Amino acid sequence: xxxxxxxxxxxxxxxxxxxxxxxxxxxxxxxxxxxxxxxxxxxxxxxxxxxxxxxxxxxxxxxxxx
Length: 66
Hints:
The protein has 3 helices and no strands. It has 66 residues and is mostly helical. It has one domain (3-51).
């Protein structure tokens, strides 16, 4: 849930909770436009949205150096 969406929901007053899991569970929020990312990938995604392509990437397994 982005900050803009959270602000809009809190202003509307229709939603008692801003907890994303509860909103989805109670069918108050769909999941079509959500993207589940780990912490590192979420940070890179945020930077790319703000500044464009960064050239950063997450490497989970280092290749063996032989």
